[in-house]
Amino acid sequence: MQFSILLVVLLLLSAVGFRMGRGRALQVGGPKARALHSLPSYYGYYVALWCGIPAVFLIAIWLSCEPFILQGIVVGALPADAKSLPSAQLSLLMNEVRQLGSSGDYQHASGAIASTAAEQYRNLRNMSFGAMAVISLAMAILGCVLGVRYIRPDLRARNKVEGVVKIFLIASSTVAIFTTIGIVLSLLFESLRFFRMISPVDFLFGLDWSPQMAMRSDQVGSSGAFGAVPLFAGTLLISLIAMVVAVPIGLLSAIYMAEYAHPNFRSVAKPLLEVLAGIPTVVYGFFAVLTVAPFLRDAGAAVGFSIASESALATGIVMGIMIIPFISSLSDDVITAVPDSLRQGAYGLGATRSETIKQVVIPAALPGIIGGVLLAVSRAIGETMIVVMAAGLSAHLTANPFEAVTTVTVQIVTLLVGDQEFDSPKTLSAFALGLVLFLVTLVLNVVALNVVRKYREKYD
Amino acid sequence: MTEMVDQVRVSATAEKVNARLQRRYAVEKRFRFYGIASIVVALSFLAILLFSIISQGHTAFMQAEMRLSVTFDPSVIDPDGGRQKAVLSSADYTALVRNALLARFPEAEDRLARREMIALISQGADLELRKMVMGDPSLIGTTRDVWLPAAASVDQLRKGHMSRDADKGGQFTQRQLGWIDALESSGNLSSRFNKWLFTSGDSRQPELAGLWGAVVGSFYSLLVTVTLSFPLGVATAIYLEEFSTRNRWTDLIEVNINNLAAVPSIVFGLLGLEIFLNVFNLPRSAPLVGGLALTLVSLPTIIIASRVALKAVPPWIREAALGLGASRLQMVMHHVLPLAMPGILTGTIIGMARAVGESAPLLMIGMVAFIVDVPASPLDPSTALPVQIYLWAASPERAFVERTSAAIIVLLCFLAVMNATAIFLRKKFERRW
Q1: Suppose B418 and one of A23, A269, B53, B353 were both cysteines; which one would form an S-S bond, judging by CB atoms 3.0 to 4.6 Å apart?
Q2: Hey, which bits of A217-274 come out as E strands?
Q3: Where is the domain boundary, B138, B170, B197?
Q4: Which pTM does this prediction carry?
């Protein structure tokens, strides 16, 4: 709250800086501001930037350093016996201190040490905020004043302002790169910690998955086995079922829409199909649990067949429904991109429409279609909510679609929702699974995008 | 002679061709039929999905309430008559509910009967009374007819989701059923609009559970998302379309954007957990962090849509602006960007619609918890609308099934409004050059 007030004040100061800069420019610019290099408002922006940017930078640096410095001071002030605690317990204590300090309510403190430290932490934080506010506002005012004094008719204000804007544009475009780096680093860092405890060979090729660690050494059945093959198999099984549902339906509807359908029919049916893509996956998950799974179970029971209520079949079918519009719109694009001359040639040789489609259009569009299917596979593999709600939790190595299987994403969610211990392989294994998921989908995407791009270049 | 042979040969060929043609036309017809059939199948999936959600969920918008004449007894609420806030808020309002029920059914005398009787009304009924008294202390000492929420089981019974027969899973005794019928026939038990669904936070009691906390949480997350991803996305698109020349660096950026568009959203959740929570120590379960994760999810969509919109602006606009002496940035800001804005806004709204429905990254950063309070700022713990659906879907009570469906209806309505706005913008401002 205080923080947003500070930002608003800074914004107001910048606005004042803008007015002052423009006024000053008009003043020094002579009659009708003819002597100015740039339009008067650029001088205003120039001052506003001098006012805002240094202050914002200061706040950003301050906020990113503050936690570490505060922590150092608070830990330094702890009594000697608390300081000599093992690092895990010390970080636990510091977490508590931070929490107490932010809430300002020391009644629930675990001990006198924590509550005094929390009070110190709170005081330090308030002090730090006050200092930050004062210094940043002072910098803003200083920047404002300096900026105004610097204004002369020959100041190239437009070029300077545009330079800053251009830097902002370039910086924004690097966010995508930093995101990728962030993903890779965070997954890699925790995965390496995991692979220090569990060998990668056991993880990638082991057949047994039971991540519950034993609390006591004599406990039965909770050995903590991290063989991820059953998860990979389950993921592939469900994705395969989804593809069996989605590819024929999606492809045939795309062909019909692109080649046969009347424009009126197309203008109604295509958006309706795309509604399927707009429905959140959590809704599909609920649909699978509420409608599809019971239906399949009862249908199976009616013919004397036992289908688990968390069967891979139900999950896969619903995921397939979700993917239909994905495949149909991608295929539609590549089919309509096939040049008409190919079709005309086939018609001229006496082929019927379906023969033209099957023997000319589809082969020509095949690379694009395959690219689309690969993208759809990567989507199916990474899909989370449907499987979390509708697929099983325990890992079975089976190819039977009527049984419950679990997937990589389900395990990531179950391992990370609730208590997390970043020193046990149970929590860390989620990051190793995430790394595998990221790499697999990355490879699929790169291959698919390349295939699609090559195809486009061929006909453009 | 040879002519006849030729004719025979020709007619034989014609026959063959005709027969083949029949087959080929049959194949053609079948192929068309497959196409139509698959569209029908896909659309019927959509119809079944919507039908099953709406048929399950529409009942949750009404819920059973009970009219009781409650005596706001001063000796229970405020024995010393000081009307102090602390006294009023900690008073025993359950006693008022109990007394009102006893006044209605004086025949319930023994302990068991009283317990059965109190089970008919929601455990949160006393909170309703407290809210009334806190809002208007002059109620104390009066007797009013008050509509209070009935227990969820009564509601389910009236909606036909629970059998009256104890053998078939019914939870009520004959005595309770008698009371319910008596209330029903005297008009003191009826279905009224379920205001809790829209005004309160989550609750363990289905009849008091609401979506408001989740809606506010989603709103805060979206606020963070839109303030970050819109400027970043548009700036990236402008840089890539208008300023950069094609080189290795921009190729790298482009490859990254295309990949991020296809990375599973749960991976963004892992990133959020590791970077935002573990490194930067931001609060768990906060919409701020959720919004940051959703920014990364929606950024590629916005960038790609903005680039398409910028590309659609014809080059002669740029040439004219530059020819009149505008700088490149002036050309973009004064001419190209305003013309591309409708397309950019459409893309942004579609990206936001995706973010509203996204839940996997939010699970990772802890926005999946039982949270009763409505968040007051983006730093308070909270859930989001799709996560609330996930949480309710996992609740065992029958009454939560219909509430889950109702929550889905609400979510789908939000999405429909957003997408309709996007379509409207596109239709209204789309320009063909």
Answers
A1: B353
A2: 223-226
A3: B197
A4: 0.88
